[in-house]
């Protein structure tokens, strides 16, 4: 294979390099920023209408079609320059920088608005396949060019974001080879998404069992019939009627709770030296050299974000923004934590704060031990599949991460369809 040096590194000699400005669609507003803050405010958001794409919708190589806010059709018409349609690319230029999402051809909505922290790109499909460009902008080289003009003064931002985007050079094989590259990467994304959908269904199944047994009190009695519907005896408690023999106690009776710690060193990326996930209040926020937990734990936010319950079974480092919970009734406690109103527990004035005592003092129902054991056994078997899917997704993501730069540079060539 003959190679040549280019602005994006060494590439096959028959490939071209073109800037995004020459690859954008010929239609109006093919590259456009989100509306200024004065044009779209919180009071414009409604329960239904045209969805607004925010940074929260662009995570981990995926366009997440949930947690939308909406504006009316009339407001969307005012913001027409910021419309996003299927096959468009959306990029964050302020706040969490460089998140890149692709709106699929089978998206839930035909039209979206990009938020004031984002910008959108419509491609000329006669020159570049949109999804190929999406993958390139997610690659190490694409991210380098995308973020080369970032500023860390105040709120992180890309300086002159749309102008910077237009100037990004793109390695450009033939349309046939672009399609072949996309066809090699897309199945990895599709399998990851399938696993995520299975996991979501399992989560809902576990929640349904919890509600049926411990909220509706329709757990199976000695004869296998629903307890409350079959005339099971109920008694008064400080939180209302509960099955006879059950107790109302503080959550601290069935958990151990501690605070995470600040690591000595951390890296934003996984590498040979920094191998253990650094867990923050709502997600993995980097990697460290050591771990402080290596057992089944539940992690919730202590400072900052509250209400996200993270499950871990293996080696991690829980940061000082977290509270770490252990329990022999792991699955039951996980469901209980999902029902707590964390806003009501906030003690922080400048930023949200929850203490260990706040969590331990939460009043909960404690069923009889036999029923708790049966729930643990039932739900644990469901989450074993979740864990298996998560392990597979990690391997698939690793494969994609290693393949992406090789495919985008032509180091690996893919066979073209006849």
TrEMBL record:
<comment type="similarity">
    <text>Belongs to the type-I restriction system S methylase family.</text>
</comment>
<keyword id="KW-0680">Restriction system</keyword>
<dbReference type="InterPro" id="IPR044946">
    <property type="entry name" value="Restrct_endonuc_typeI_TRD_sf"/>
</dbReference>
<dbReference type="InterPro" id="IPR052021">
    <property type="entry name" value="Type-I_RS_S_subunit"/>
</dbReference>
<dbReference type="Pfam" id="PF01420">
    <property type="entry name" value="Methylase_S"/>
</dbReference>
<dbReference type="GO" id="GO:0016787">
    <property type="term" value="F:hydrolase activity"/>
</dbReference>
<dbReference type="InterPro" id="IPR000055">
    <property type="entry name" value="Restrct_endonuc_typeI_TRD"/>
</dbReference>
<protein>
    <submittedName>
        <fullName>Restriction endonuclease subunit S</fullName>
        <ecNumber>3.1.21.-</ecNumber>
    </submittedName>
</protein>
<keyword id="KW-0540">Nuclease</keyword>
<feature type="domain" description="Type I restriction modification DNA specificity">
    <location>
        <begin position="37"/>
        <end position="204"/>
    </location>
</feature>
<keyword id="KW-0378">Hydrolase</keyword>
<dbReference type="GO" id="GO:0004519">
    <property type="term" value="F:endonuclease activity"/>
</dbReference>
<keyword id="KW-0238">DNA-binding</keyword>
<keyword id="KW-0255">Endonuclease</keyword>
<feature type="domain" description="Type I restriction modification DNA specificity">
    <location>
        <begin position="243"/>
        <end position="393"/>
    </location>
</feature>
